[in-house]
Amino acid sequence: MDNIYDMTQQELHNRAFDKAYSKLMYADIEILKLEEDIRRRSFGSLSEGQVESMLYMARIDQKVWRYISELIEKNDKL
Prior knowledge:
By secondary structure, this protein is an all-alpha fold. It contains 2 helices and no strands. The protein is elongated.
């Protein structure tokens, strides 16, 4: 593939799925880390409220990337 625009539809689909899956796994890891930080009360220079806000946003990201992954999977079945 010499040019990014020469990607086949299948290659684009595969890359989209891989990207969504990667983002979903990152969100999962981030949530676990933030939950552990809150449990251990390990906030560094941040306040507990800031860390809780980060956890809330990570959960939203997780939900969005899970939805995108499901849409891509459903497209496979069409």
